[in-house]
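Pair request: fold both.
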Amino acid sequence: MRTNVPYLRPFALACLLAVFVSVAGVCFAQSYPNRPVRLIVASAPGGNIDLVARVVAEGLRAAMEQSIVVDNRAGASGILASELAARAKPDGYTLLVVATSHSTNLHLRSKLSYDTVKDFTPISQLGAACFAIAVHPSSEVKTIGQFIALAKSHKGQLSYATAGVGQANHLAMEWLKALGEFDVVHVPYTSMGAAATALMGRQVDVSILSLPAAIPAARAGRLRLLALTGAKRVAQLPDIPTVAESGFPGYEVEGWQGLLAPAGTPQAIIDRLSQETIKVLNRPSAVAQLAAGGLDPVGSTPQEFGAFIQREIAKWGKVIKQAGVRAQ
């Protein structure tokens, strides 16, 4: 007996179309890339953002057998690079490496020419690194608790150095100030190295420094490390506790880097890039290269990285609003 059910015809056509789109997407991803890919990096050459970008670029170049051209575009805390990427054609041939500032710029600036979330598609988080809170070795302070007690007893008299207004280490201290209910004066410098030099020269009382800036100076006896800002201790400094361990559970600050594409980039390409990036970051050679810069490789799915960005945006929005920080 034959059964003629007219409504099944459009349903069958829809299923065939879905299969065709899926197969076409897979084929497109497999043939991608067939020409050089531009990797816009939101920093100048040198430094952690550039380091992780070049490690990933080299790995993707080998995995996909195509040139990955690194295009460093420093300026305005990553805004110039993000503007370029947001306007690029969403075909997988323009990618963007951003850092923590990607989640803070929308709170620090009155207006951006792009939407931090809607104009980009997450691919993978790349790396992360905590900071170290340090004082001069001549200081009487040996723990975070002692530092906060000293700051409270000398309200507004102590100062701290950072790599600049709105930088991750600046916001890290502002968050700690709010949690600990103390006040210290912010002295912004132009780089992490300059902030470390100021602390070693006793021009300021405390600083939150990157591990590459802090560890050598601490081992040379030129700085004393009080605590780390990450969620866990690091292998190079097993005796240094985290801020969370020191009485502030939930406190976690890391400088991070991640890979994005312009919104609208085909999902098949996004998925392939994420998979290949995770493979690159798991290679022992990549782990060693990033460790030299004090970075831990991360690697995540597009969904995981997207959720991470949203959490960072929410976290820093609260800190920046409470502290009244504005970009200069």
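--- second member of the pair ---
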Amino acid sequence: MTTRRSISPCVGICELDEASGYCLGCARTGDEIAAWSQADEAKRQAVWAALPARFAALGVACRRLAWDVERIRRFAADGLGQGRRMAVLGIVGALGEFMPGPNAPIDVRLEGNVLSATTEEAALRLHLDDGTRALAFSDVDPADGEAPIALVVPRQRSALAAVSVLTALGLDREGITEDGRTGLLFDLGLGRQEARFLVRIADDRSREVMEAHLGAPLLEVLPKIGPMLVRTSPTRVIETPLGRVEIATPIPPPGGQSPNGPHTHLLPAYLASGRAMPAGMDIPKSYLPGAIFYPV
């Protein structure tokens, strides 16, 4: 039997801190980095065990967890299926929150690299392969379930096309549920590689409203299509390099409250920050955010 070896702590930031001698990305010493490929499993485990204290000494918040892809899949599937975690996809100001509503059942399935989860009002699909990384932002043990965990992917292979204007994409052939694949997708044009915010239109009148403003940038078009979106509450589809979430709960009017359970946010004032991740949860530039799992 082949024993799976511990993964590398590397996060793509390879810069040694002069004072401590630790790498600012992974908190290993230069000697540990050089010897990693030849190190036996006992040595690798010892290095991993030393990293939390080193990160604390460096004052570095973001750290990679020693989770291989199988551990990441179990974490995501169990957290969603047991109602202990919600998954948030998107960027600051444009995101979707996936969780079951009050007393709503959730169906979670893991088939190969694909994790899917569905409720009556939302659906989630994530592609979790060997390129997926799990990052933490505090020294809280993730097993305690009290800290957010970000799943990220390498930037160089996973960036989305950055669409900057309202764009018609045709039928949603990637829809998670079969009935959703008959709707027409429109990209609202975030202009970001980290995420896309789409709406799936099912009726002719709403389609006509969207088509009347094709080619317009988000800040110009949102006041024109916003009343229709609030009135009809079409399915919102948020895509990241890790997958997509589809949410069909009602959109609250300005000043209203989001419903309990799955919902979306599209807030231009927060988009203006240009941030992909919430404050205090910055990730290395070598990665793109895929999903954040928060305890609930």
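Observation on the second member. The mean pLDDT is 91.
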